[in-house]
Task: inverse folding
């Protein structure tokens, strides 16, 4: 089991080598109009919605290692399809394959490392281990963003091609994992879902569940809009030809900030409380969204650099709240249901966004302001509701 803990950061770094990240919107929009690009993104999130719970159930039923191997294979196939390009339908199929990789990995990776720690009676170290792994992943994303942004200036397809190489490495690492032992096997599918419902009767788990769903939406809105926002700013400065390279640099700095923050959440929670750290994270994400909604200005690019910090702070703490308080036969299913709810909410947000921009050939400043303005209101309402009920998190003992 110690080998699993040792290999886990390497796995996260390999699967996080997302060279496509700073240029995916630029790549897709070079082939299709903005409405089709948003539909492609909605297909991705919709596919994750469809696959999320079945993949979590398979993880609880068949094991962590085979599920993670399947995730790496799907990622590799999806990235290769997107790199090769072709018709819109080829891109849609690639998005589905990448979604399959995300769904199969979602929750299973964290569950695997928690169960490996628990087998050594080290379950309380989850937040620290997860923080370290997220730091490795963020550093890998930073390096990949720099390289991907520069190479995309030559050919936008390089981002997905190199990402396929990273997921092949992740596949090799996943094959080296040892399956953690579990006291119970997963029940039948409907019994598993009922088990999730029973777990959500616990106020603390329900609070964290709602927080995670809201943050999925709030974190992904600036993620989706950062590239078109940057392109508009650089266009005003007559530097739009450098958008891919600058986007890569921006993403690298963003991931560098996340790497620094990922190991700060657990010490900070000991000082001010887990719920307060999570609320601060949501507020910081809201600040980024508000900045994008108010103005099209180079100063907001600096604000966008902290987009990934809230997730880096909050994710290890979320897992430390959830995994020790959910049965081993249920953990991946529970996390998949939680992730499904968040992705379903964001898929709906993307669909609404596609409808709102209509037949625009490109996102302009007014469209970005409209999209982010509505989300900013949602952030405020979510913060208020969660702040008023934050005492519930004390029930899980973190």
Result:
């Amino acid at each position: 089991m110690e080998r699993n803990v040792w290999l886990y950061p390497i796995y996260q770094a390999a699967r996080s080598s997302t060279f496509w990240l700073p240029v995916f919107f630029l790549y897709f929009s070079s082939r299709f109009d903005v409405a089709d690009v948003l539909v492609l993104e909605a297909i991705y999130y919709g596919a994750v919605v469809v696959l999320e719970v079945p993949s979590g159930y398979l993880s609880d039923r068949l094991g962590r290692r085979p599920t993670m191997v399947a995730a790496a294979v799907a990622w590799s196939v999806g990235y290769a399809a997107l790199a090769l390009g072709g018709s819109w339908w080829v891109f849609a199929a690639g998005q589905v394959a990448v979604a399959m990789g995300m769904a199969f990995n979602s929750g299973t990776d964290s569950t695997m490392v928690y169960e490996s720690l628990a087998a050594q009676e080290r379950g309380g170290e989850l937040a620290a281990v997860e923080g370290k792994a997220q730091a490795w992943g963020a550093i890998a994303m930073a390096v990949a963003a720099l390289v991907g942004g520069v190479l995309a200036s030559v050919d936008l397809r390089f981002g997905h091609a190199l990402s396929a190489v990273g997921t092949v490495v992740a596949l090799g690492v996943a094959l080296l994992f040892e399956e953690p032992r579990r006291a119970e096997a997963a029940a039948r599918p409907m019994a598993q879902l009922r088990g999730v419902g029973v777990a959500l009767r616990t106020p603390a788990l329900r609070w964290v569940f709602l927080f995670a769903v809201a943050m999925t939406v709030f974190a992904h809105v600036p993620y989706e809009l950062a590239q078109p926002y940057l392109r508009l700013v650089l266009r005003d400065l007559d530097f739009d030809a450098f958008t891919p390279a600058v986007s890569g640099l921006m993403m690298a700095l963003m991931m560098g900030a996340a790497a620094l923050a990922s190991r700060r959440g657990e010490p900070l929670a000991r000082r001010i409380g887990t719920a307060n750290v999570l609320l601060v994270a949501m507020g910081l994400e809201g600040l980024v969204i508000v900045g994008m909604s108010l103005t099209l200005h180079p100063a907001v690019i600096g604000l966008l650099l902290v987009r990934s910090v809230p997730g880096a702070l909050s994710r290890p703490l979320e897992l430390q709240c959830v995994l020790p308080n959910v049965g081993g036969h249920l953990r991946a299913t529970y996390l998949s249901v939680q992730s499904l709810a968040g992705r379903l909410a964001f898929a709906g947000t993307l669909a609404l966004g596609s409808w709102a921009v209509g037949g625009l050939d490109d996102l302009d400043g007014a469209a970005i302001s409209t999209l982010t303005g509505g989300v900013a209101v949602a952030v405020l309402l979510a913060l208020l509701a969660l702040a008023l009920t934050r005492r519930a998190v004390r029930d899980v003992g973190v």
Remarks:
- The mean pLDDT is 86.
